[in-house]
Amino acid sequence: MAKKRTPSFPKSLYPLLRADTVEAARALLGCVLWHETPQGVAAGRIVETEAYLLDDPACHASRGPTPRTAVMFGPPGRAYIYFIYGMYHCFNVVTRGKGTGEAVLIRALEPLEGLDLMAQRRKTENIRNFCNGPAKLVLALDIRKEQTGEDLRQGRLRLLAPGSYPGWNARKPPLIKVGPRIGISVAVDLPLRFYVADNPFVSKA
DNA sequence: CTTTCGATCCGT
DNA sequence: CGGATCGAAAGG
Questions:
Q1: Is A88 inside any structural domain?
Q2: CA dist., res. A126 & res. A109, Å (int)
Q3: Confidence (pTM)
Q4: Distance (Å) from CA A85 to C1' C2?
């Protein structure tokens, strides 16, 4: 009988989250976002990210800490989830050390586990529409705003190593493409969006 | 207190 | 391309 592997946070990721947000945005591609609720587990591979930097007017933390963005100024590896457009939420991974407000927005996942739950929550049978957008993946995994501040190395909401599920060859990593960020009105031209080339689950090619 | 507007999604 | 929908944050 095969030994069942417990999903685990990639040890090498934490120093990177603390050190450099752009490198973190690249390194997060391929990692798995995993959420366990009373209904079961839903998980997907991260295929699209965006970096939000301190000196960047599009970054929520760029004008100093507020009640909403306080967690961005805390330790790395925590969840920052915010409410947007009156009806949606977006999920970020906090980066850098205490006092520095930066984060990586997770924009798209390739669905891996809990496809039935995702279909229910997203009210569609089309797998491509489960997690191909920042608010869509929050709905598909049923992530709540109250989970802001949770440590993504352990607990119900986790970041897992790329090898945690089949379908990722660390020896032959896919091409990473770079482009401008989406949905912002300032600093539009900065090349801070990263995505896996030729992946059908990215929100925009 | 009032106003503005947004790191989006969906149907047309 | 416009409508839905509401809280955070900036301004008076």
A1: yes
A2: 14
A3: 0.96
A4: 14
